[in-house]
Design a protein that fits this description.
Layout: E1 3-7, E2 10-13, E3 18-25, E4 33-39, E5 46-51, E6 58-60, E7 68-75, E8 78-85, E9 94-101, E10 111-112, E11 116-121
Parallel strand pairs: 2-11
Antiparallel strand pairs: 1-3, 3-8, 4-5, 4-9, 5-6, 7-8, 9-10, 9-11
Length: 122
């Protein structure tokens, strides 16, 4: 069974930090890029960050660049992807989704988690 399970969301004050985690299993996710997307209220879902299956190449949206770090690891058939977010702002509020797919086509990522809510208070 393919499963992407996010955790780590919550309510945090502006300037605080959160560590989002995604555990992906049920498929050879070690061969996929892993990404974090977010959807703010009333807005379209956007790519926040992704990491290549080589574990070295990364991408960050301008809105989070310099404040976030993505990483991945593999153990016992599960790929764990971490998004560390610092200096959080109210505009970081949204539902954060973990996804897996082709590094070159983040708009077509194939596997998705259910999402975790992040709320940043002013």
């Amino acid at each position: 069974q393919i499963r992407l399970l996010e955790s780590g969301g919550g309510l945090v004050q502006s300037g605080g930090s959160l560590r989002l985690s995604c555990a992906a299993s049920g498929r050879t996710f070690s061969n996929y890029a892993m990404g974090w997307f977010r959807q703010a209220p009333g807005k379209e879902r956007e790519l926040v960050s992704q990491i290549h299956y080589n574990g070295n190449d990364t991408y960050y949206a301008d809105s989070v660049k310099g404040r976030s770090t993505i990483s991945r690891s593999f153990a016992e058939g599960t790929v764990t992807t971490i998004l560390q977010m610092n200096s959080l702002k109210p505009e970081d509020t949204g539902v954060y989704y973990c996804a897996a797919g082709d590094w070159y086509r983040p708009d077509q990522f194939k596997y998705w988690g259910q999402g975790t809510q992040v709320t940043v208070s002013a």
